[in-house]
Amino acid sequence: MTLTSFTAVAQGADAVLTWATAQELNSKGFEAQVSGDGTTFRTLGFVASVTPNSSEARTYQYRDAEAGKQGTRYYRLRQLDVDGKESFFGPRAVAFGASALAAVQGFPNPFGSEINLALQTAAAGPAAVSVFDGVGRLVRTWQPTLAAGASSLRLGDLQDLPHGLYVVQVRYSDGQAQRLKLVKE
């Protein structure tokens, strides 16, 4: 199976996933999957291949019409073969609704002993802030309560971290998450 494109775009309150294949070999079809954090996915629906084997270009589409979408949703495809083999494509991010206003910025970059976060959230509530190293290991966590609108947060005591790339993840009370890459000098 050769996937030549995969896009996910907002159309009003829906997300439209579109993908194209150049050829298909033993293809059963595609699961459209969604995630609120880009890590844990669930299946929305299934689109069967036109034929299991094809050397012709094919285009497919799936519409996510679930109600109540807010914030960033991540979409991926799980391609299934007739023999049970699977391949994944994506994810692609689509922003929706009031929570789409949530934003996070970090400075200084590169940082030394602390990171200052500037946050813009749509709703007040508890959050989980995590710092991961370049290979994805969790190195620090904080559990602040954020106010609606603009707020700032200081992540201190980082001077003992090795130099390199880090990812700061802010997970909001509604389950949405945002990530920011920073470098430790």
TrEMBL record:
UniProt lineage: Bacteria, Pseudomonadati, Bacteroidota, Cytophagia, Cytophagales
Source taxon at top rank: Bacteria
Name used for this protein in its record: T9SS type A sorting domain-containing protein
Species of origin: Hymenobacter caeli
